[in-house]
UniProtKB/TrEMBL annotation:
Domain Heparinase II/III-like C-terminal: 411-534
Places the protein is found: Cell envelope
Name of the molecule in the record: Heparinase II/III family protein
Entries under InterPro entries matching the protein: Chondroitin_lyas, Hepar_II_III_C
Main subcellular location: other
Stretches that traverse the bilayer: none
Domain of life: Bacteria
Length: 628
């Protein structure tokens, strides 16, 4: 799409000259920077001051080797991310304040980063992965990947915003930035086509890495590259690679990696397209493309309330969409998407997570850029879409009432157990009440070596037994493309929303499942409720049959036939079940991982309903309603 429509324009010189390209005002434009909302400015200056004595921690070889030795991903990654987060915070604080207080610290940070042996983090280092005996990087390890390209983008923005001020200190600063970025990123990006994430190999699997890396490299080429020929070559290659991402994207616009990854995939794509639009003075304008528009709209189709989003797969339940959603909505003329972005709570400065300069910069000036469209959009609900169906990805979302989080919310999925960042979760569902979580998808812990290894599915939170799914004779769903939903249908009416599917194919042959028809239904009206109907047929009677329910709410199972899940003061969801046929027990699971704690607190609960007498065939219904 991009190459076919715009490659010729780039070749003919449509890109603005570097001195005319100004997506964000440089720091010397004090009038624009002084107009940044005070709360945003204060947040970044305060964060920079709080870390004013930052000592640029060493990146020990032993920490790099820890990934290979012990599977410890964070020993090195946390230090790597801290350096970049603090440098980025100093840059933003200096731009906002304009007093020169942070310039020496920025200079120290630039040289600390430029002196690193490699910008490639250990779990992304293909050179080491291809050598089973090696655990340390070499100076020649110049892979273009998420971390290295992100480092290049940070340095590009640092120079773009503050280059004139840094030149007053020393011309060596800019020379060093251009040298390191050129050797480590620009040269390999232009010379190599074999990075899997570029998508140029026919069988290549393309995911959020494509727009993530291309977004970073586009910032490098547009903000830092002085040679027009090199700049044009880089932009043209980026457009070709983004085309491969779009070719492989689900045609319903669904980010199958989950809403958390939309920021890198859909949001990253938007930032690429927006930069191309700005760099060409509007001549490159792909925002009318139906797939591009659906990729943007996906994020409000899976919005629950506030920072809560439908979190199938590895993603978190709490997501910050901010400026990307607002800008995307403005570009495609979708007021709902724009308002979702504007209503989102601004992200906090990161310390031990990825630092991206462009999103907070865009957030600071998005309100200014979108002033005209904001008035037109102001009367539209931020999101709270009544229902959505993504047929290719087989995801349904539905709430009681359009425009409000009050009442019940249901999301359910089919799909396969071969999706990006997959969990074994075909047929899983989640339920929220009044915008708060009641039955949940846990998501994942902090990543570690096992997360991306052949032993991935031994992790407890990836198993179907820790999703809202059945376990058959102790057997759980299996990973792989063959394990998928069948006979999938969705019905959306004023009265009800229903996803129906057969999940038998997600289980191994040893389960002897001939059919398992599941219907996940939200019924609207005076007797609003969620119903989960299961009808199964076995080839042989299973030794046991259990149904798991995962919740952050402490369950009350004292009343036979009724499970109480209190989700707020004086409010609970009641789950009705057949006490004559099912036994019930509750397990408390203490969460020690900081990522899970950030979503659910210190503990979650697993309610297990067990068939008293498993049979060849049967039907079960769980009915859920809010008690106020």
């Amino acid at each position: 799409m991009l190459s076919q429509n715009y490659d010729g324009l780039v070749s003919e010189g449509v890109l603005l000259a570097p001195e005319r390209f100004c997506p964000i005002p440089p720091a010397r434009d004090r009038a624009r920077w002084s107009a940044v909302p005070e709360a945003l400015a204060h947040k970044w200056i305060r964060f920079a001051d709080e870390h004013g004595d930052f000592a640029w921690p060493a990146l020990p070889a032993s920490a790099y080797a820890a990934f290979k030795r012990e599977g410890d991903l964070l020993a090195y990654l946390n230090l790597h991310m801290e350096r970049r987060s603090i440098l980025g915070a100093y840059v933003l604080a200096e731009c906002l304040e304009g007093r020169g207080r942070f310039l020496d610290r920025i200079m120290d940070g630039i040289f600390a980063v430029c002196e690193e042996t490699t910008w490639v983090v250990p779990h992304h280092n293909a050179h080491i992965r291809h050598n089973d005996k090696e655990s340390l990087p070499a100076d020649a390890d110049r892979e273009v990947e998420l971390a290295s390209s992100g480092t290049g983008a940070l340095l590009a923005w640092t120079w773009f915003l503050l280059g004139d001020r840094l030149n007053e200190i020393s011309v060596r600063i800019g020379e060093r930035i251009r040298h390191e970025v050129g050797v480590r990123l620009v040269q390999p990006y232009l010379e190599r086509d074999d990075y899997w994430w570029m998508g140029f190999a026919k069988a290549a699997h393309v995911n959020n890495w494509n727009p993530w890396c291309n977004n970073n490299m586009l910032q490098v080429f547009l903000l830092l590259e002085e040679d027009a020929g090199t700049r044009n070559r880089g932009v043209r290659k980026i457009m070709r690679s983004l085309d491969e991402f779009l070719k492989r994207y689900p045609p319903d616009g669904c980010c199958e990696e989950g809403p958390m990854y939309w920021g890198a995939s859909g949001g990253g794509l938007f930032q690429c397209l927006d930069l191309l639009y700005l760099a060409s003075d509007g001549a490159i304008d792909p925002f009318g493309d139906p797939l591009v528009r659906d990729i943007g709209r996906f994020i409000y189709k899976v919005h629950i309330d506030g920072s809560y989003f439908v979190d199938f797969a590895d993603g978190d339940a709490k997501v910050a969409v901010g400026g990307a959603a607002a800008g995307f909505g403005r570009r495609i003329g979708d007021a709902r998407l724009e308002n979702l972005g504007r209503s989102a709570k601004p992200a906090e400065p990161p310390l031990r997570s990825w630092f991206f300069a462009y999103p907070p910069l865009a957030e600071m000036f998005e309100r200014e850029a979108g002033a005209a469209s904001r008035d037109a959009a102001s009367g539209t609900a931020a999101s709270h879409l009544r229902e959505a169906w993504l047929p290719h990805s087989q995801v349904m979302t539905a709430r009681e009432t359009e425009g409000t989080a009050e009442g019940l919310f249901l999301a359910a999925k089919g799909g396969t157990n071969f999706e990006p960042h997959n969990h074994n979760d075909v047929g899983n569902f989640i339920v929220y009440a009044d915008g708060l979580p009641v039955l949940i998808d846990l998501g994942t812990e902090n990543y570690k070596a096992q997360t991306f290894s052949p032993e991935r599915y031994e992790l407890w939170y990836l198993k179907s037994s820790y999703h809202n799914l059945p376990t058959v004779g102790g057997l759980v769903q299996q990973a792989g493309e063959a394990y998928r939903a069948a006979r999938v249908s969705c019905s959306l009416t004023d009265e009800a929303a229903e996803l129906a599917l057969d999940i038998a194919g997600a289980y191994p042959a040893a389960a002897r499942l001939e059919a398992w028809r599941r219907a996940c239904r939200l019924v609207r009206g005076a007797a609003a409720r969620v119903e989960i109907e299961d009808a199964y047929v076995f080839g042989a009677v299973p030794a046991s049959l259990e149904y798991s329910l995962m919740s952050p709410c402490r369950p009350d199972v004292s009343e036979p036939g009724r499970i109480g899940l209190p989700y707020a003061e004086g409010k609970r969801l009641a789950v009705a079940y057949d006490a004559a046929a099912l036994d019930v027990r509750s397990e408390e699971i203490f969460l020690e991982d900081s990522r899970l704690q950030g979503n659910w607190g210190e503990r979650v609960y697993r309610v297990v309903l067990t068939e008293k007498q498993p049979a060849l065939r049967g039907e079960r219904v769980l009915s859920m309603a809010i008690e106020r």
